[in-house]
């Protein structure tokens, strides 16, 4: 390996991990953006991570997809052009999701389905909220979805219980110490997998 290649590889490995944070709720009166802001505050000390917030409320992706091998409508192509490169550039993902009827929002599934190679061989962490279960049932279903897309979900997640009683008006959890500890644990796992998989993809492109 040449000196220039060694330097390039080392620089790439030491560069901050690019983490796309996906706000998965679009409903009126949602808590998703407030929860995301709290999480980003809790993660502020991780200088080795660079966050890019992808808010699904800012996107307009249709529910109807083109036939196999077909071409999306021009307005859909334009919408994807603004977000797909950001997913492709990400080294890892964090999905912020509520739980609706024991599952995750339809808008989130639609967004996930509009992409495929962007998820492959990258780690995914979760921040969930909702009811007594804290959204963990939504997370368990999302793990199945991302496994099909060849992504690696990290074991630990952040679950905020009772969005009306467990969260303050600013979206921050009332049991801040416990939730911040959970965020630290999840981010540690995400960072480990993010670096390992980034190095692996650079050495040998993933064939899904």
TrEMBL record:
<feature type="domain" description="NADPH-dependent FMN reductase-like">
    <location>
        <begin position="18"/>
        <end position="161"/>
    </location>
</feature>
<dbReference type="Pfam" id="PF03358">
    <property type="entry name" value="FMN_red"/>
</dbReference>
<protein>
    <submittedName>
        <fullName>NAD(P)H-dependent oxidoreductase</fullName>
    </submittedName>
</protein>
<dbReference type="InterPro" id="IPR050712">
    <property type="entry name" value="NAD(P)H-dep_reductase"/>
</dbReference>
<dbReference type="InterPro" id="IPR029039">
    <property type="entry name" value="Flavoprotein-like_sf"/>
</dbReference>
<dbReference type="InterPro" id="IPR005025">
    <property type="entry name" value="FMN_Rdtase-like_dom"/>
</dbReference>
